[in-house]
Design brief:
transcription regulation (chains A, B); Arc Repressor Mutant, subunit A; homodimer; Aspartate Aminotransferase, domain 2; transcription (chains A, B); Transcriptional regulator (chains A, B); alpha/beta; about 15% strand
Chain lengths: ~475, ~475
């Protein structure tokens, strides 16, 4: 261990044990040099390391202070099951997506991580090499179900997680949403009942609306994320054909459901023979420890269509996702040949090269560390400066923070006010149709901390503050 | 003019005037040198030029012979209007597409030109350069409606044809089929009537089936391709909401409808306020002369959604198409954000660079010349060797030949026999549901002539011969 790491380690212990309290001033650099006997450089490195981990923060000309520790807060108890025969979220989502896509808009509302973190240099190098070769563009090998070598590599990743997978189970798609839509089309018919989480990626609402499905939602559980009791009640009451669930780093809230609950969900799905479209596009963005299991892991009867993508780890501009389609592979390929035909050949070839040589694992490790650091910085800053009537939900994965405003505030109005200042945020009406869920915001915090980011965050905070004060 | 061109020109005149007859032997190289006073090299160049144009052919050790001249044959009179409430072409198409996609299969059944002709070296060079730059992958600028610079360049191409176009009228899509499907979704509702050509790209049947539309077909006209009388009759009888038509280098037959008829179609569309999904993906593959007009040219009321792509000119592996969406732009972007989200960013950027510097025009000129040469070679060879009870339809555009077998033969059986020999062809049941249209084949002839191609074509001919003889 380096000397700076030693020092950082002992200060971290003082913070985590509560010996040093939140907002307590740390010894100045000079004092610390004298106390510890380490060089100034060593002390500076240690402080910077702690700052990058979100454990301490600095104020100009005042020195370093202990940051507040992150305590996982329970979600508010959400309201009960709702049945929606008609959803009208589409035009809102469209207006929203168009408003935040301008380059001038600060992308706190974006669903994608900062592109600076993605497009791994090694992948760009491989793309540069393959792009110069004519055969990289040949469509034949890239036609549905997609490049065989790529499907083999994806199958291997499933096997590493203990999920027996054959390359023929995998279908490469034009991104994760394409995988989800194709999967739903393959299992559901107009008029079928679909079960969604109450607060959920808007793509699920849109897909259900487009296919003419009847939507039932279950509330999030305040502690566990997933409300198993409500789930059981719904599937005993309604003839649910298919569920569309996100259980790892759930979008927009961020929670990850425990393996124990996943096992119980799987058991109920099997008992009732219900299909599951599993949206697992954030599966790689866990912090530390082990990768959470997917529902596919517990699936013995080919009821789970597991959908994922490279968009959240390597860049959305690539448009490559996949589905573990199993017996639905033919049906899904069929749908592809009627729509997008195939996924870009060059990029499939580049991904094969990139995944073959463990570049992906290395990239993911760096990415996870950066996301964790940035998210902690955003969390501490918001926690410190938002009015106390607001709540910030932190979960150790992904790059979203879920912010609760006082229930008298309308998050759409906050969004409207901020977009006028060229700052995007994602208001909760994008994710939930319930009138009781209109006062939440999703903030993308995948950005390296700098003055521009801090200023934008200050504007978010100020805009919320003003509305809170006006409401008092 | 070079001497060899002079010589080739005078021989061409002798052939076209009928002074030299089909299969008549030309003077040997030596004789020609003596007669003309030109060098052996000049005479050889002239003969090779004429051969590449399909005007003469060579037999080993026998010398050069005059090829049969191409006379455009009228199509067989097709049967009358048909109304299909339920189409079941999907599983046939799927089985077919899967069977021909193996690399070992000779791709006479493919819908795409030989990839050797596409992926222009300059485009590959640009891709190689841009692929090394991180900013090429940024999704923001590529989101719907697509890269602005690319839309400007496409709009300019419309303007060059006299079609007033604003970049905001254009939406970039994941290939041509995606453009067609999105356009149809934007204008048609389940239960609406759609008018199709009787023999048509299967994607049109599939889209109609998927959207739950009622299909009316009109027959092809034996001389003009498009049967204006049948068209008028149908739109006066049925409440047609939308037509899906291909009028330039029609797939699978190959004809191009005259500007005069296009004008009359447009007039009728306007009178009856019927939308048109115009499939124009072969618009650039005309031979010589001028680019045929699109229906968009005659459209004064924004009824035409003109769909095209780079798949048939630069390579299907890119997956970039577009639609002139006009007032439907928002609706179509909306549908994109719910499905594929966006088109690959890198490739949109590369196309901007490629199209900006006239590389595309240069590439198209070479491509057209090659396709014309190859198609003529295929035509002459098939004409010469197929049983006389077969007919080969040649049109001066694209890269398909449409072959009529004796009506007692079933083209599906010919396809089945050939796929056993690893040769793909496209049988007419893929394109028409009429029982009277089961004895046609579409042959892709975009391949440079060589022994392998000739052998495969010989197998096609032999397989047909055997079936003709067995039927006598």
């Amino acid at each position: 261990m380096y000397k700076s790491e030693q020092l950082a380690h002992s200060i971290r212990q003082l913070i985590e044990s509560g010996t040093l309290n939140a907002h307590e001033k740390l010894p100045s650099l000079r004092d610390q040099v004298q106390r510890s006997g380490f060089s100034l450089m060593t002390v500076m490195n240690a402080y910077q390391e702690l700052e990058s981990q979100g454990l301490i923060y600095s104020k100009e000309k005042s020195g370093y202070f202990v940051a507040e520790q992150i305590v996982l807060k329970p979600l508010e108890q959400y309201s009960v099951v709702s049945l929606n025969s008609k959803i009208e979220i589409n035009s809102l989502v469209f207006k929203y997506l168009k408003s935040i896509q301008h380059e001038s808009v600060v992308p706190f509302g974006s669903a994608f991580p900062d592109s600076q973190l993605l497009a791994a240099p090694k992948l760009i190098q491989i793309m540069g090499q393959l792009a110069r070769q004519r055969q990289s563009y040949d469509q034949t090998a890239s036609l549905p179900p997609g490049n065989l070598a790529l499907r083999k590599l994806i199958a291997q990743r499933y096997c590493m997680q203990g999920i027996q997978t054959d390359p023929d189970d995998i279908v490469i798609t034009s991104g994760g949403l394409d995988a989800l839509n194709l999967s739903l089309q393959a299992v559901a018919q107009p008029g079928d009942y679909i079960l969604l989480q109450q607060t959920v990626f808007y793509g699920a609402w849109q897909a259900a609306e487009r296919l003419g499905l009847k939507v039932i939602t279950i509330p999030e559980h305040p502690q566990h994320g997933f409300d198993l009791e409500a789930f059981e009640q719904v599937i005993q009451t309604y003839p649910i054909k298919v569920c569309w669930l996100m259980l790892n780093a759930q979008n927009p809230i961020g929670f990850t459901v425990s393996d124990d609950i996943k096992y119980k969900i799987a058991k109920l799905l099997h008992e009732h023979q219900i299909y599951l479209i599993e949206d697992d596009v954030y599966e790689e963005l866990f912090y530390g420890g082990q990768k959470p299991l997917s529902m596919k892991y517990f699936d013995q009867q080919n009821l789970v269509l597991h959908c994922s993508s490279f968009s959240k780890t390597l860049g959305a501009g690539f448009r490559v996702g996949w589905v573990y389609a199993g017996k639905f592979s033919d049906h899904i390929q069929h749908l592809q040949l009627m729509s997008t035909i195939s996924v870009n050949a060059l990029i499939q070839n580049a991904l094969v090269e990139f995944l073959s040589h463990h570049h992906y694992e290395k990239h993911l490790r760096t990415l996870r560390l950066s996301l964790e650091r940035y998210k902690k910085q955003f969390y501490h800053y918001l926690k410190q400066h938002l009015p106390s009537s607001c709540e910030v939900y932190y979960y150790p994965s992904g790059y979203f923070l879920w912010v609760k405003l006082p229930s008298t505030l309308d998050s759409m109005q906050v969004y409207e006010a901020l977009i006028q200042q060229d700052i995007g945020i994602a208001p909760s009406p994008l994710f939930s149709v319930l009138p009781t869920q209109q006062h939440y915001l999703r903030i993308n915090c995948s950005f390296e901390w700098n003055t521009k980011i801090q200023n934008a965050l200050d504007q978010v905070i100020k805009t919320i503050q003003q509305r809170v004060e006006a409401n008092l």
